[in-house]
Amino acid sequence: MNLRFLKSDIILAIFVVAVSAMLLIPLPTIVLDFLLALNISFALLLLLVGLYMPNALALSVFPSLLLLTTLFRLGLNVASTRLILSVGEAGKVIEAFGTFLISGEIVVGVIIFIIITVVNFIVISRGSSRVSEVAARFALDALPGKQMAIDSDLKAGIITALEAQQKRNELRRESQLFGSMDGAMRFVQGDAIAGFFIIVTNILGGMYLGISNGMSFSEAIQTYTTLTVGDGLVSQIPALLISICAGIVVTRVSSDDKTTLGSEVGDQLFSKPGVLFLAAVLLFFIGLLPGMPILPFFFIGFIATALALYVRGNLKETSEAESSLLLSSGDSKLLPGITIEDVPDDAVFVLHLDQSLLYPAYLRRQAKYHEWWKAFSKQFKKKVGISLPELYVASDPSLSAGSYSYEIRSYIAETGTVLLDALAVEVRPEKAVFLGLELIDADVHPWTGEPISWVKTNSIARELRDSAILSSYDFLEWIGFRACLYFKNHPQELLSIADVFEKLKLLEKKHPGLISDALSTTFISVSKLTKVLHELVKEGISIADFQYIIE
After folding, report:
1. For a surface tag, which of 168, 310, 361, 405 has the fewest beta carbons within 10 Å of its beta carbon?
2. Is the pLDDT of residue 551 over 70?
3. Residue 527 falls within a domain, yes or no?
4. Domain end position, chosen among 438, 469, 490
5. Contacts of 90 (CB under 8 A, 6+ apart)
């Protein structure tokens, strides 16, 4: 947030200095009321931010906020304790918490305070601390693998250098966040313990001071216990809210950078109408048990039934919409592209896709696919020594849904079928199942020879793809790899005698006499040299250093 007159860092510095001063300087009750209201407001704000954040990195400053809020609450505890023990009052906020919220019953207030403290310390804080500890360990263990996956995608041309740098920065921030959260959760635990000791100290100290000032024993207990319990509740309730926010941050797993916790809970918890129907039946059955109140169980059962009917209807509409999109005829007004007739006659490599499924999917990411092909062409030339031809993709009405073929110099080199809603992931099948992926088939990467698992494009697969934990490829990238393997095994399609002759002419200009001397001495013709180069490529030997081969 940019402020025109005051910068955020100056405000933060003033805040830290003011909190430190609270430990030493007595505060008027009106100021304490304002600060307590500010503490509650900030805790609510932080909880709402945690609920609406798309992932943990969206609140990467949370460990520092935990430290500052803990310091702020401790400063308020010291200020309120000073007022309670010195003048026997601590403002309207603490008085309201001590009287209205506990209805004047001291025992009720003490029990509520103990329950909140136990829930905060044992349930939420310790659970969040354990989660952050394990997350920090796993993030550190997975760091080398994720970095290698990013480098692999960059070399393969799947991502650009800028995207790779962004992913590395996200990886660094993620590891630092979970490492910081592992230690920051100790602030929350320590704050809960400190709050318990403060309330005990206030009660005992208040009783001693009250009796010393002439109060009766019962009057001292009534006065100081009410104020102390109110002080404890007004401190522990914001602490509980921030602890809940901390738990949300460390347990947040998002499959999309734009989703919130509420949307994911709705999608995953209420996505199965059959489960909702079963829950409704169980609720009706429980309501019919002897002694059970019928109204609440039947009311919730009817809500579950209505929700199940709504979800089932929504799923049906979504399925019909997706089917109509995928099975569309490929109208040129909606999906501009090229047909077989539009391909130039001199095109070397033409990929044919069916016009109902694969070609519309290609058009939706057309620019990215061609950018990927150009980037991979550079890697291919560096590794093999031959330039890949320009990629032409055309819709073919003769192909069935999900089918493809590609032709090399007007010759159909390969035909096949692929799944549109599947990803090829660089992981062994048994590990894919362990990761929770929906395995379709096992295969081998056509270019690298590494094991490949074809998996359904579910939320887990999308999360692994987006986070660059595993390298994955969709249908067109997979076809591109297969075509590159074909070019490697049939280099004559890309390297002709004329191409070799041009290479020789360029080398002769650079080193006069080298070509004539080499070819005349060894009695090798250009056609024979071309065949030698073809065999080298087939054996996996790069011909990128053409001068070295001639020498």
Report:
1. 310
2. no
3. yes
4. 490
5. 29, 32, 80, 83, 84, 227, 230, 231
